């Protein structure tokens, strides 16, 4: 493992004979820790989570720049900054980037970092597969964005309706990059979903029953199930699109009698669960933040969990409300109208429960709490405008107008992104060992929320006035210019807020260093769940010893008890309860280069499919090399001594279970077999 | 944690820590992957159903796919694939009995039957293309047909590689009782691919076109 004290040498007593662990010669594990190699080879869920976050923020800057270009173009009538062709690419790539390369990976960052901690586990079930997920996502995202340098990005909108996505209407390679890039990031999501579900279902310590898991863990479990079932559907749609464009298939070729609704159905069967994939992690985050800063347990825990599960189920039955104007027929429209109204119920339950949690609490309005309250209020607006879409006649008016743009930004920016920012401020000390400055944080919050409303509030009006989305300009006589200008000003206020966030990171870090790097302690917020029960920043092995869980909010119950009048009283300080992270005798999975090697093969194959099939050969070779190397590499470094494989021979791990294949789906199952890694403490 | 007990458990159960569900991580992950794969084939089958009557489009001269299907031939290769599930079960049973030799033989037999099936598919594709003139881009039916059966063929091929990998990758470590879960996982995948073929076969070759 990548970091400092490789603990296992301690107590190894016997002179361990070095075992040859160089099955393919080159990519031996890094021997010295503390270098950049740690990051390339790490399988630590915390480092992977941080890398997810960094990569997503990088794409966030790109997607944000695209958003600003859109707003500059639309600030005044007859804008000339972007040509119609470039405008199409900019709004398409803005949407695709923000959804697939920003919100989803940011949620993955939190899920990766926190799920094992919140259930009290040492790592995820398959640490190397976890690294694979990240690298595949990163390379997929870079591949998608490399289209800008190779003739222009996708230009069909994020949902990329057929037959507009055919070569006839979009002759550049942009949509090929879209199809293959999302295919690659889909593989990342699928691998990650399998991994995290296995982790949560299988790796809980004693006493951590499912209904003692924090709401954040629950919401992410639901999300991973949604990904598990939604990703293959979009994969098929993207395969069909790819085959249409590159190999002359006819799935969406209307000239050959194809039905363009096929794409719409496949896309939205994925696309609507995707909406919940985006929002539920944020719901989970604020379900941790609000109780902490209200000093109350979450109101109606089981209602929170079951409404999340209900959203997960019902999310599969509402997809056609995106298609009310596609001519799907009155029965379908009626059915999907009803189901769309119903899905507002569990969402409403959640909002009421958050309010009831806040009600009567001893509130502390930290930045994290402000962002969380921002989510509750802004998401409610977005949710309400969403319910208006369930009324099909009204939706017919609003479809493809700025009203829709306003709606989904209130949901995704106001809901998902603000929640993620709440999570940043909340968990920052746990992840990095220093607090973000609260005063700057409040500036960040207020600029962001004011800018957000100034930008997207007016879009409701514009939409109802009839301004259609995706239009590259408008005439002065249309009456759109005032609110467009307001929206454009708002977008720069948002940008200022985001810039302040980045500045806050470096400023707080400098101040912290200047102050001699004081440790914020394990529990700076007086929080409730297990991740606060270990040192900050989280030690590499997470917990010194396994925690035996006795209740929901275990950590809180260890800090507080009841006196004879049934009043809550403090019975212990956080420092007394929390583990100090000093145990160095913990067995951890070993680092590996093969995930990154394997992942690197995928974009090369994708370039090959677009430009020259010959390029697929080195890509596939790299894939196979990574694959075989993976299988023959011990998940646990035999030279790192004293893992208990030594006790009974090491014949059980590296079976060549599967020979490589370039089928994307097939990559997974062999890894499962090869990557089984135990991560229990080995105190013996 | 008492490492002594850990060691004992490991000797018996080869390295699987106790899990909350009682199902090992590897097996749970395989089930999850297969459940996800159901949706993959679900979407592919849906796409095919949409175009299943379109074989005559673009002047191919056929009224119905049954003009080109060789049902007895495909039934035979389907039978071969189904029998491979039986040999897979026999292999797992042999491994469970610690009968390494029989385990290997049955696993090789399974892989061989899978290859026969793939051979049949290659033959069918070739015949459709060369004799009946049905190329991948001829019309919507051909695209949907080749894609659906092709994806299944790729799954079978991956399964064959998994089988061969298990047989040849365990030459040093042996394929005894301790490997039974590995074999079981390969078997899970193999049976899944078989079941999917039962559905595909029914949808494509058996349901008549009104």
Task: Report a brief summary of the structure.
The complex is a heterodimer of chains A (684) and B (210). Chain A has 684 residues and is mostly helical.
Question: What would you say this structure looks like, in words?
Answer:
The complex is a heterodimer of chains A (684) and B (210). With 684 residues, chain A is mainly alpha-helical. Among the domains of chain A are: 113 residues, no CATH class; 48 residues, no CATH class. Chain A has a two-stranded antiparallel sheet with strand order 1-2. In chain A, a hairpin with a 5-residue loop joins strand 1 and strand 2. The radius of gyration of chain A is 25 Å and the shape is globular. The N terminus and C terminus of chain A are likely disordered. Chain B has a domain of 142 residues: Cytochrome c oxidase, subunit III, four-helix bundle (Four Helix Bundle (Hemerythrin (Met), subunit A), Up-down Bundle). Helices cover 72% and strands 0% of the residues of chain B. Chain B is built from six helices and no strands. In chain B, helix 2 packs parallel to helix 6 and helix 3 packs antiparallel against helix 4. The radius of gyration of chain B is 21 Å and the shape is elongated. Chain B starts with a helix and ends with a helix.
List the helices and strands and how they pair.
The complex is a heterodimer of chains A (684) and B (210).
Chain A: H1 37-41, H2 45-75, H3 84-119, H4 127-146, H5 174-202, H6 215-247, H7 261-294, H8 301-314, H9 330-358, H10 367-390, H11 392-398, H12 402-432, H13 438-465, H14 481-514, H15 554-559, E1 560-562, E2 568-570, H16 574-577, H17 594-611, H18 616-632, H19 666-674
Antiparallel strand pairs in A: 1-2
Helix pairs in contact in A: 2-3, 2-4, 2-14, 3-4, 3-5, 3-7, 3-12, 4-5, 4-17, 5-6, 5-17, 6-7, 6-8, 7-9, 7-10, 7-12, 8-9, 9-10, 10-12, 10-13, 12-13, 13-14, 17-18, 18-19
Chain B: H1 3-13, H2 25-51, H3 71-96, H4 100-130, H5 140-169, H6 180-206
Helix pairs in contact in B: 2-5, 2-6, 3-4, 3-6, 4-5, 5-6
């Amino acid at each position: 493992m990548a970091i400092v004290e490789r603990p296992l040498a301690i107590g190894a007593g016997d002179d361990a004979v070095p075992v040859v662990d160089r099955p393919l010669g080159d990519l031996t594990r890094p021997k010295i820790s503390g270098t950049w190699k740690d990051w390339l080879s790490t399988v630590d869920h915390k480092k992977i989570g941080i890398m997810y976050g960094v990569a997503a923020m990088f794409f966030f800057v790109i997607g944000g720049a695209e958003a600003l270009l859109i707003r500059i173009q639309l600030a005044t009538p007859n804008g000339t900054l972007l040509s119609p062709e470039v405008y199409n690419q900019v709004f398409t790539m803005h949407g695709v980037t923000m959804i697939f390369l920003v919100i989803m990976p940011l949620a993955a960052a939190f899920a990766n970092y926190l799920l094992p901690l919140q259930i009290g586990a040492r790592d995820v079930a398959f640490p190397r597969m976890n690294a694979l997920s990240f690298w595949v996502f990163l390379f997929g995202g870079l591949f998608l964005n490399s289209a800008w340098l190779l003739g222009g990005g996708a230009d069909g909108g994020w949902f990329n309706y057929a037959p507009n996505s055919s070569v006839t209407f979009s002759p550049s390679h942009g949509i090929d990059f879209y199809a293959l890039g999302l295919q690659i990031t889909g593989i990342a999501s699928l691998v990650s979903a399998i991994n995290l579900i296995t982790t949560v279902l299988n790796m809980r310590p004693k006493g951590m029953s499912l209904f003692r898991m924090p709401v954040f863990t629950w919401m992410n479990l639901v999300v991973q199930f949604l990904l598990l079932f939604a990703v293959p559907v979009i994969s098929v749609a993207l395969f069909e699109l790819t085959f249409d464009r590159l190999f002359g298939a006819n799935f969406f070729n209307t000239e050959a009698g194809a039905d363009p609704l096929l794409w719409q159905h496949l896309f939205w069967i994925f696309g609507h669960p995707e909406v919940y994939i985006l929002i539920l992690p944020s719901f989970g985050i604020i379900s941790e933040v609000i109780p902490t800063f209200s000093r109350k347990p979450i109101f109606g825990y089981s209602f929170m969990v079951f409404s999340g599960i209900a959203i997960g189920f019902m999310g599969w039955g509402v997809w056609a409300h995106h298609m009310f104007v596609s001519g799907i027929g009155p029965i379908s429209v009626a059915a999907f109208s009803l189901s769309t109204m119903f899905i507002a119920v569990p969402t409403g339950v959640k909002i009421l429960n958050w309010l009831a949690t806040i009600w009567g609490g001893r509130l502390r309005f930290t930045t994290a709490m402000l962002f969380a309250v921002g989510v509750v209020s802004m998401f409610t607006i977005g949710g309400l405008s969403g319910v208006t879409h369930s009324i099909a006649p009204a939706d017919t008016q609003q479809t493809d107008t700025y009203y829709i743009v306003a709606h989904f930004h209130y949901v995704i920016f106001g809901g998902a992104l603000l929640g993620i920012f709440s999570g940043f401020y909340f968990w920052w000390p746990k992840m990095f060992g220093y607090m973000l400055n609260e005063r700057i944080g409040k500036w960040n919050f207020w600029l962001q929320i004011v800018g957000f409303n100034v930008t997207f509030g007016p879009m409701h009006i514009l939409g109802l006035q009839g301004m259609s989305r995706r239009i590259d300009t408008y005439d002065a006589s249309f009456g759109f210019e005032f609110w467009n200008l307001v929206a454009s000003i708002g977008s720069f206020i948002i940008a200022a807020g985001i810039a302040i966030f980045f500045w806050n990171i470096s400023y707080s870090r400098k101040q912290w260093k200047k102050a001699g790097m004081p440790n914020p302690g394990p529990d700076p917020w007086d929080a409730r769940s297990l991740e606060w029960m270990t040192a900050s920043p989280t030690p590499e092995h997470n917990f010194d010893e396994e925690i035996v869980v006795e209740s929901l909010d275990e950590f809180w119950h260890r800090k507080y008890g009841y006196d004879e009048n049934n009043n809550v009283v403090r019975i212990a300080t956080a420092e007394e309860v929390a583990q100090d992270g000093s145990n160095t005798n913990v067995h951890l999975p070993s680092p590996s280069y093969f995930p990154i090697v394997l992942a690197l093969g995928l974009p090369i194959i994708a370039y090959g499919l677009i430009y020259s099939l010959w390029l697929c050969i080195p890509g596939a070779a790299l894939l196979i090399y990574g694959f075989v190397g993976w299988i023959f590499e011990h998940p646990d470094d035999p030279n790192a001594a004293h893992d208990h494989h030594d006790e009974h021979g090491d014949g059980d791990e590296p079976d060549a279970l599967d020979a490589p294949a370039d089928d994307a789906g097939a990559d997974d199952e062999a890894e499962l077999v090869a990557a089984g890694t135990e991560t229990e403490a080995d105190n013996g | 944690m008492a490492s002594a007990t850990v060691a004992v458990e490991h000797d018996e159960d080869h390295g699987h820590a106790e899990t909350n569900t009682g199902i090992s991580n590897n097996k749970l992950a395989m089930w999850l992957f297969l459940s996800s794969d159901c949706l993959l084939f679900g979407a592919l089958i849906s796409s095919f159903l949409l175009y299943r009557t379109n074989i005559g489009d673009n002047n191919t001269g056929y009224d119905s796919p049954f003009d080109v299907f060789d049902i007895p031939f495909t039934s035979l290769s389907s039978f071969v694939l189904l029998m491979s599930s039986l040999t897979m079960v026999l292999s797992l049973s042999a491994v469970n009995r610690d009968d390494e030799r029989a385990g290997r033989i049955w696993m090789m037999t399974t892989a061989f039957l899978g290859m026969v099936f793939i051979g049949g598919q290659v033959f069918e594709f070739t015949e459709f293309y060369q004799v009946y003139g049905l190329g991948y881009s001829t019309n919507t039916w051909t695209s949907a047909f080749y894609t659906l059966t092709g994806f299944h063929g790729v799954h079978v091929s991956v399964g064959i590689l998994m089988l061969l990998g298990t047989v040849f990758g365990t030459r040093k470590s042996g394929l005894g009782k301790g490997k039974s879960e590995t074999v079981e996982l390969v078997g899970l995948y193999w049976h899944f691919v078989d079941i999917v073929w039962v559905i595909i076969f029914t949808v494509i070759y058996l349901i008549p076109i009104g």
